[in-house]
Design goal:
The chain has 243 residues and is α+β, with helices and mostly antiparallel strands. The chain contains four helices and twelve strands, in the order E-H-E-E-E-E-H-E-E-E-E-H-E-E-E-H. The protein has one domain: Alpha-Beta Complex (Nucleoside Triphosphate Pyrophosphohydrolase).
């Protein structure tokens, strides 16, 4: 694992990555402590996000950009980090994008997208996009804070908006963009023992990205491969809650 975590990159389909599962794993983080469960309670999260101040995340973006993208104008965007209030613990609501999309097909993502002129702020963008993509109503979400922006390889400047979601939410997926929505226990994602570092070569340089593969278990053979920008933003949340 590199000492400067900002060197971890989350690459787009414009690089050589076709299937991130096939990129070799070069490190795990079992030596790092998980976030204590008492820090993963709603009140503790509200307090920590209210005190975020000028905290700087270890991973501020995707790193070096492929040729031709470095001059692209930056575009504001937001994602909702939806924390579902299940009995006993919080779960993170994630989506799997449909396989036919041009960008990030099949990837695991937070609900979100680019800002529109009618959006009052980053929070409004995140809530609007979540309702458009998965049908999550605004009134089901209590926004409790924001993480520092994350800049993707394609020059989207993304604000992660953290919200607590009522457990009785009902979804209506946009079938063009979203193949499915699912939940992952927050404590799983906040345990570095479940974080993997992958390394590959692109443009004459060695690149890294994070992944957090989630397997539901209980006879369910599926694996949800959380990686790239989504994994990086979750890793930033880990560091915020560990500080």
């Amino acid at each position: 694992m590199p000492s400067d975590e900002s060197s971890i990159t989350a690459r787009s389909p414009r690089t050589s990555i076709r299937d991130p599962h096939l990129i070799p794993v070069v490190a795990h983080d079992a030596h790092l402590s998980p976030v204590a469960m008492d820090r993963l309670r709603p009140d503790a999260l509200r307090q920590r996000l209210a005190q975020i101040g000028d905290w700087q995340p270890p991973i501020s973006g995707d790193g070096a950009r492929p040729e031709g993208l470095s001059e692209r104008q930056a575009t504001a965007a937001s994602v909702l980090v939806p924390l579902v209030q299940r009995p006993g613990e919080l779960h993170v609501l994630l989506t799997r994008r449909t396989d036919h999309l041009h960008d990030h097909a099949g990837q695991i993502s937070f609900p979100g997208g680019r800002a529109e002129p009618s959006d009052a702020d980053a929070v409004a963008t995140a809530l609007r996009e979540a309702e458009e993509e998965v049908g999550l109503k605004h009134e089901m979400v209590e926004v409790i804070g924001q993480l520092p922006v994350y800049t993707t390889v394609t020059r989207f400047v993304v604000t992660p908006v953290v919200g607590l979601v009522r457990p009785d939410y009902v979804l209506a997926l946009d079938s063009f963009e979203v193949a499915e929505a699912f939940e992952v226990p927050l404590h799983f994602l906040m345990n570095p023992a479940n974080h993997q570092h992958h390394e590959f070569e692109f443009g004459g340089a060695r690149r890294r990205f994070l992944s957090m593969p989630w397997r539901p278990g209980h006879g369910d053979p599926r694996e949800y491969f959380v990686w790239g920008a989504t994994a990086a933003m979750l890793r930033n949340l880990y560091h915020l809650l560990s500080d």
